[in-house]
Design a protein that fits this description.
The structure is a homodimer of 352-residue chains.
Chain A lengths: L3 H11 L10 E3 L6 E3 L7 E10 L11 H19 L2 E11 L6 H17 L2 E9 L4 E10 L15 E5 L4 H10 L13 H4 L5 H7 L17 E4 L4 H12 L2 E5 L10 H4 L5 H7 L6 E5 L1 H4 L5 E2 L2 E10 L1 H7 L5 E4 L5 E4 L14
Parallel strand pairs in A: 4-5, 9-13
Antiparallel strand pairs in A: 1-2, 2-3, 3-6, 4-6, 7-10, 7-12, 8-10, 9-12, 11-12, 13-14
Helix pairs in contact in A: 2-3, 2-6
Chain lengths: 352, 352
């Protein structure tokens, strides 16, 4: 009973929420993170919380304790990157079984400290408890200068749609683990993006900035909307479309999909499927106004930025595809509705 | 291996922390909550996070879903009360087993909404996941006007030590449940303080204010230090003593202990033991400068405020009692070292 989205909707419906953009709360629930505080000269705080639970969010036997600590903080902080905020602090509720309070804990903290230094964050509070399975619940905070954040709701028809890096790499790693192929020497390195994702904090901060002087819209950010690919492109781009009231048209042959070795292609691994529906890459999907596109770079700080399609008017769009918000154009130019098939805790059958 | 305090110490030691009172962070880990942000005219935000887990923090069979929701938010928010902050918002990471996503969830949210309205809070974000046991991880935020918060470290020798309300009531309720006495009609109502604690947000806010014009120290708060009784008086007052570098002398016959019916006294329930070591009352323990005491009220907003002792110089004190920071004076005037015997997750044998 109840998908993840339905459960979240019931939470927002039954608990008191604040009308957005009023007083101290400038962005309420429903985006990657909430935005609080701040007059015009003060920095706003961006807050997000995230759960990382043994055998739900990570397969404990393949994760070294250092990987657990690193990934827990990375995935939580990716929501700040998607908002264009500068990661600053975190609080941790740590739940540990009896046998994990010694060396395991030290290793986990070492990995987490590495991530914290990389992102520029300090811990400011938390809680510890004992239970049967490892759970790391983090609330992360970042600052958004001048109150400018990248929301999901800013996409407009004719905007270009971009993704950073490659998509499907983490899902390939996870499926190698689930299919017990991760110990094969030739494929072992393909698991790394699943264990230690790179997150796009520097890119997010740039996308939230005003960019170069040539930009025609001073005061507004380079990107008009953004989200991180935590659930998978088909789900995450759908979130932007729903929040913005638009549709999207993307081209299959433009999507920068994971490179799959021949040996795995023969086993049925499909790069496009992995790229469209695989989660946990923590890349950014973002939209850019057409007027900003003429000078848009192909990469930034060593991270490829690929234009995969454009935002379309949802009114034309809805007539053709009843439920999908995204149209996928295949190699011969035919359009297909792309239904969100990303991760849903309360729908999924297999543990991840 | 490792008590709760040792585990927390390892976390602070291995993860990057910020030197307190520098830049945006005015109070780091180690108090009831952290304080961030805010120039002189802006309100500071006070943040704290707290875990509430089935069969660890609550005995699920006696908790109605409404009680779970109410208590989860109340106990987290009590840390804001102890800082004198005005509760404002929260984020929730909610972990649910399959069978709890329907009516149970609705009931839990109803209880939580009741608490949120009572305290004046809205939800601004969170995460949901599926797992075997119910877990509610909350990060609560409140505002501290003019940056004034009640820290643990402000107690000085000669300050008076006060407690609000009665102590030991929640522990009595818990022990009735554990000893299967909670269904007896005459004692059923004694379980309520364990299921739905009253928290002291209004009192905390007043203790952090400047108080009346007669107060002799404009700019400083009414209380010099404060903490909530979540672990029990012996533990929580020890925290104040350690953070402040002082000792405490308290009188057994002044402690406002839970009223225990004769039938339970005969079964061995000891009011003083319950009051000294019982947790989860969420009352406030606070200290007041001697100069402020002459006009100090006996109650505030219907909540009794009882002077139970005074802060003493730890140098004299340490000579007599090696480990304890607190001296308990019994009914005939003898002094006894009072060792902290409150709740510790990694030391406790029985589940709570």
């Amino acid at each position: 009973l109840g998908s993840e989205a339905e459960i979240i909707e019931r939470i927002w419906k039954r608990l008191p929420i604040c009308p957005t953009r009023r007083g101290w709360l400038s962005l309420g629930p429903g985006d990657d993170a909430a935005v609080i505080g701040g007059g015009p000269r003060a920095a706003n705080w961006v807050l997000s919380s995230d759960a990382f639970i043994q055998d739900i969010h990570f397969v404990s036997e393949v994760f070294a304790p250092e990987d657990v600590g690193y990934k827990a903080l990375a995935r939580a902080t990716s929501d700040l990157a998607a908002m264009g905020a500068v990661p600053t602090f975190f609080l941790m509720n740590l739940v540990l079984p009896d046998g994990k309070t010694g060396r395991w804990l030290d290793g986990m903290l070492t990995g987490m400290a590495r991530a914290a230094r990389e992102f520029g964050m300090v811990i400011i509070g938390g809680d510890v408890a004992k239970a049967g399975a490892i759970a790391i619940h983090l609330t992360v905070g970042g600052s958004a200068l001048h109150g400018r954040v990248l929301e999901r709701s800013g996409a407009r028809p004719e905007d270009g749609i971009y993704v950073s890096g490659r998509l499907g790499e983490a899902q390939l790693g996870l499926e190698l683990v689930l299919r017990r192929l991760h110990k094969t020497a030739a494929w072992r390195r393909l698991v790394a993006p699943y264990l230690r994702p790179k997150i796009q904090t520097v890119l997010g901060r740039w996308l939230a900035s005003e960019g170069s002087r040539q930009a025609r819209r001073p005061g507004s950010a380079i990107a008009s909307a953004a989200i991180d690919t935590s659930d998978g492109l088909s789900s995450d781009l759908s979130h932007i479309c729903e929040a913005s009231g638009v549709g999207a048209r993307i081209w299959a042959d433009r999507i920068p999909a994971v490179r799959v070795p021949d040996g795995l292609l023969r086993k049925g691994f499909n790069p496009l499927e992995l790229a469209l529906h695989g989660g946990e890459d923590y890349q950014l999907v973002f939209t850019v106004r057409r007027a900003m596109e003429w000078s848009f770079p192909k990469s930034r700080g060593g991270v490829a930025l690929t234009r995969i399609g454009e935002v379309v008017d949802v009114r034309n769009f809805a007539r053709r595809h009843t439920k999908a918000r995204i149209e996928l154009i295949d190699a011969v130019g035919r359009g297909w509705p792309l239904v969100a098939k990303g991760w849903d805790h309360f729908r999924a059958a297999d543990g991840r």
